[in-house]
Structures are given as structure tokens and as C-alpha cells.
Amino acid sequence: MMQQPRKRRKQLKYTVRETSGGSGRSFQVPLLKVQSLNDQTSHEEERAIPPVPELPQEQEEKLVEENAESAQYKNSWSEIQHDFVHVFLEDVCHDEQECVSCHGPISEEHIKCNDCGAASYYCSQQCCIALHRWDLNPFHKPLQLKKINNGKFKYIECFMNIQFKRPSHQCITQRLRYGIQVYDHLGRMHNVSVVTCKCEKEAITMFRYGLWSSTIDKPSILFHTELLDTAEFLMLEGKISLHAFCQSLRWRNDLTAEQCSTLYTRLRGEPIGQYRFFKHQIRSTYTVSSEERISNCLACPKDGNIFISLDANFGLVRKKGSSAGTYLATPNHGTRMFWRHQMLSHLPQVQVIR
Questions:
Q1: What is the distance between the alpha carbons of residues 158 and 155, in angstroms, rounded to a whole number?
Q2: Over the stretch 25-59, which tens digit does the pLDDT of each residue have?
Q3: Does the pTM of the predicted model rise above 0.90?
Q4: How far is CA 225 from CA 35, 182, 214, 222, 261, in A?
């Protein structure tokens, strides 16, 4: 007996007319779907928002006081925001200013030095040179107000011929070197002259003036020691690379791409490495002779102390290139941290415990 197919129940539909678009067309939606949507909407409406718990009176008063203090602090800054602009414009106008050297009135094309102070003006270049010598503020950047086209004025960098010399040292082999580039403690570039002699290496002579040389003999680029200190602290604490440090100096001091590239190529490698080793020598008060390093065995010490090396970070990045990461000289720290394999051949074999 064949089974008769079941008749499908007629589904009730609900006619909906569209009026928002203006077309007036109508379409049908199943009635069950409309009912489910209505039930869902009704349940959501019945689901009331839970009431906010009332805070104790003491906590509510404390919260109101904190909000009032925060609003007062914000309003105090907003009240003086425009005052900073007015003070800056008043300083630029330089009305009723006097020379800090001779205390006379300043001229229209005066000289201003922001490194000397906020209100440091000079009436002439002679007064400016009197307070900017090789032994007094040699790396300041004075600006002179010059008249340009259309009657406008603009601050232009004032040329300062700084000459470094040692008055207490007299030698017949002294000679004057011109055109040496110096990056000061802020990363700004200067052109200076230095008096050198054959009594010592030129790198030692430059160091007497607080400058670190890029090379030992006849250095053409020098770095201020405070600039190298800043680079070392940022590399250790901020974990930034030397390249990123030089790039930040470029944007801060408006250096050209060529000047920034020269700064990086002359600073990386030996110059920054040798300076960091010099700082290590100054900070370290413990020195060990080469004989003591070889005679005392770390595996079987005679004095009862034993040194155990648990692990070393051999995953450090090492640059591979023509000059990066390769040095012809012996390690600066000697065998303080690592021994050569030839020095370990005579030691007894020990069992490695993992």
C-alpha cells in the first residue's frame, strides 16, 4: 500500500507595506517569524536594567571631591594655555633688552644665544665672543638677527671661530688643524680648530678638551663625551640601536641625511666600543693580572670559592658584514667573561649537569 504524501500545512503570512522609501511596495513575511520577533522584543523590554547600587555617603562625597579637583586641575591648565604664546611672542619682540656682556642697549641686528639663557642678548659680535671661547661655552649656538627680503628679519646662525689650545703646554712641534667637525652634547655639529703637537697622540689631545676621536691619528670628526654617555644610557635602558639614536639626533638638530650617515658610520664600531670600555675602566675598581687569571682554576679553586656558569645568552644578534661585528684587536675585557678554547684544554673534564 503506497503511502500518501503528507499535505503541507498552509503557512499564514503577514503582509508588510514599505513606506520609508516612498515606493509603497508590499511583501509578505511568515506570521510565525513575526510572532517570534514580537516575543523577542517584548522579552527585551521586560528585561529591566538592574538598578545602580547606592554608594555610602562617605564614598560618594569623596568621589565628588576627586571629580571637582580633577576638573579644577584641568581648568587651571586651560586658563594659561594662551599665556605661553603671549610670553613667547614678547620674548621674540625683545623690547627693552640689554646686552648681558656690556649692559648696553642692543641694536636692531643683535645676537641672541638661547644656550646662555632665555634672555641672553648681545649688542655686537665682540661681546658675544667675549663669553664664547674654547674654555667658556665653546659649543653654544648664537643666532644673529639679519634683515632679509621685503624688510623682514630672520635669525641666522652666527659663525664662531673656536680654537682649542693648551696654554700650559708649549712645544715647537705645535700645529693648527682647521675644519674639524665636532658633534656637541646635544648632537649639533660645529667646525672648530685644534692645536696639536707630536708629544702625544692627537686622540689624547682631543680627550683633554672633553672630545672623543673617531680615529687615533688625524681625526676629522670628534664627539662630545656627554653625547656618548647619553647614547650608552639610551642603548642600555631604552634598548634602542645606535642607528635609531643617530636618526633622532638628525630630526632634533635638522641635520642633513649625509651628516646623519657620517655620524653613524664614524661612531659605530671601535669609537663607541672603546669609549664604553673606557667608562668601564673608570667605574670598575677591581683589576686582575693575566698571571692570576691563568693560575687560578675555576673548576678546582684553591681558596675554596667556586664559580658556576649556569647559562649564557648566546642568542644575541651579531651583525655580519664587511666591518660590523669584526675586530682585529684583542678583546678589551680580556678573559674576564670568556676564555679562549686553547686555555681550557689543560683543565680536567667535568660532567655537565642539565
A1: 9
A2: 555 545 555 455 555 555 555 555 566 566 666 77
A3: no
A4: 81, 11, 12, 9, 20
